Each structure stands twice: as structure tokens, then as C-alpha cells.
Automatic annotation (TrEMBL):
Molecular function via GO: RNA binding
Descriptive protein name: EXOS2 protein
GO cellular component, one term: cytoplasmic exosome (RNase complex)
Keyword presence, tRNA processing: no
Keyword Nucleus included in the entry's annotation: yes
Compartments where found: Nucleus
CDD domains tied to this protein: KH-I_Rrp4_eukar (cd22525), S1_Rrp4 (cd05789)
InterPro entries per UniProt: Exosome_cplx_N_dom, Exosome_RNA_bind1/RRP40/RRP4, KH_dom_type_1, KH_dom_type_1_sf, NA-bd_OB-fold, S1_domain, S1_RRP4
GO annotation terms (biological process): CUT catabolic process; exonucleolytic trimming to generate mature 3'-end of 5.8S rRNA from tricistronic rRNA transcript (SSU-rRNA, 5.8S rRNA, LSU-rRNA); nuclear polyadenylation-dependent rRNA catabolic process; poly(A)-dependent snoRNA 3'-end processing; TRAMP-dependent tRNA surveillance pathway; U4 snRNA 3'-end processing
Keywords: Exosome, Nucleus, RNA-binding, rRNA processing
PANTHER family: EXOSOME COMPLEX COMPONENT RRP4 (PTHR21321:SF4), PNAS-3 RELATED (PTHR21321)
Length: 253
């Protein structure tokens, strides 16, 4: 027997409500609502909570704060070099409390805390956008968790249940190394797309449907006849989600 189960009268009984997972003879039950358990290679979205010596503490929806070491980031300009005492003094210039970042899980400490890195130019500080927090169990594992959707916005589906929705950048700026956030005003049309996507994600979460690029896009397209604020009305939510679910089943079938 594995996690989330116990034995009574020689029967295996689930101790949590969730999904049964079998690996050969090992039976586990993964809880539907649980804190995030990091796995190496996961993409996460997190918020800086503390600046410490040579490291940042990051809130990633797990039991313990995650750690981003100064040696695990690319400095502005994207250069790879040894981090000096001057870099340590300037840590708050790169990331300070309250900043949102996207990162990858590099390793896991013995106590279960997660160590992050942002060594690729696609990771780094997040600028204008909306953060949506959902249960980590609803985010489907995929090859990529960065999606530029055809409706004009992009999403980062963090494995930790933090989802970042932002306007699709017109050009990829590789010079900044991921540490200059674009704080230009976002046009109304982009804000409407982002708000609609956010409400669609909340609708899918209400009906416990897995979140990935296709399910979000189908839900977005099904919501277009409705006003953005109406999407969260229970009867509209149900109609939109049923249509999206049917399209998913048709595409899989």
C-alpha cells in the first residue's frame, strides 16, 4: 500500500478523497486538494517572500517556502558568471519581496523544501498580468507549460497551481535576462481577454476539469457569446463548461 491508504479487515481503504494511482502492485491515492509536492523539472510560478543571504525565499503553494539561490539565476544581460559580494548586496535590485517569478524546480531538499532555478531566459520576473491560484492536482502535466494562446494572451500553468495570465509580448526581449518587468499600461482589449481567460479558468476549476492549453481555449471560445462578468453565474458556467467538455471528448475520441 502507498500514500493515502490504510488497511482495515484486510481491505485497502482510501484515507483521502482523490484519484487512485497504481504503479505495478503499489496503490496510492492522490488527494484532490493538497499542497504542492515538488518534482524535479516542474515549472512553477511563485512570489518572493523574503530576501536572505545569497538566497530568496519563495511562496510556491507547498508546505515549506521554496529557495532560489543567488547562484541559480542569470543576472541581467543573461551572462553566466560567478556571483560576487557586489551581486549579493544588489540582490534586492533583481528581486524583492512581493515580486512574482517563473522558475523550474532544480532539486528537492531532504525536508521536502524545493530549490528553484531561473537559468533559462524564458524564466524570471513576471510583469503585467493576473495570478490565479488553483489546486495543483487540476494542472495537467505537459511537455511545455508556457502557452501563447491564439486569443491574444499567454498563460504559464505552474505545476504548483499558480497560473499566470499575461498579454502575449510582441517581441521576445532576450537582452534583459528575465529581470526587467514590462510595466507599460495594458490596452483595454488585452485586459478584457485576460479577464475572460481568468473567469474561464475559474469555471473549469468549479467543475473540476483538468487545466491545459486546449481545455482553457475551448472554454474561452464557448464563453464568447456571454459577457465577461456573466461567466461566473452558475447557470452560464455550467453551459460553457459542458460545451468545452464535449469538445474535449470529441477531439480525444
Amino acid at each position: 500500500r502507498g500514500h493515502g491508504t490504510y488497511v482495515e479487515d484486510e481491505k485497502l481503504i482510501a484515507s483521502v478523497a482523490g484519484v487512485v494511482e497504481r504503479v505495478n502492485k503499489l496503490v496510492c491515492v492522490r488527494a484532490l486538494k493538497a499542497r504542492y509536492n515538488g518534482e524535479i523539472g516542474d515549472i512553477v510560478v511563485g512570489r518572493i517572500t523574503e530576501v536572505q543571504q545569497k538566497r530568496w525565499k519563495v511562496e510556491t503553494n507547498s508546505r515549506l517556502d521554496s529557495v532560489l539561490l543567488l547562484s541559480s539565476i542569470n543576472l541581467p544581460g543573461g551572462e553566466l558568471r560567478r556571483k560576487s559580494a557586489e551581486d549579493e548586496l544588489a540582490m534586492r535590485d533583481y528581486l524583492q519581496e512581493g515580486d512574482l517569478i517563473s522558475a523550474e524546480v532544480q532539486s528537492i531538499f531532504s525536508d521536502g523544501a524545493v530549490s528553484l532555478h531561473t537559468r533559462s531566459l524564458k524564466y524570471g520576473k513576471l510583469g503585467q498580468g493576473v495570478l490565479v491560484q488553483v489546486s495543483p492536482s487540476l494542472v495537467k502535466r505537459q511537455k511545455t507549460h508556457f502557452h501563447d494562446l491564439p486569443c491574444g494572451a499567454s498563460v504559464i500553468l505552474g505545476n504548483n497551481g499558480f497560473i499566470w495570465i499575461y498579454p502575449t509580448p510582441e517581441q521576445k526581449d532576450d537582452k534583459a535576462g528575465g529581470y526587467t518587468a514590462n510595466l507599460e499600461p495594458v490596452p483595454l482589449s488585452d485586459r478584457e481577454v485576460i479577464s475572460r481567460l481568468r473567469n474561464c479558468i475559474m469555471a473549469l476549476v468549479t467543475h473540476k476539469i483538468m487545466l491545459f492549453d486546449t481545455s482553457i481555449l475551448y472554454c474561452y471560445e464557448a464563453s464568447l457569446p456571454h459577457k465577461i462578468k456573466d461567466i461566473l453565474k452558475p447557470e452560464v458556467t455550467e453551459e460553457i463548461v459542458l460545451e468545452a467538455r464535449q469538445r474535449l471528448l470529441d477531439s480525444e475520441g
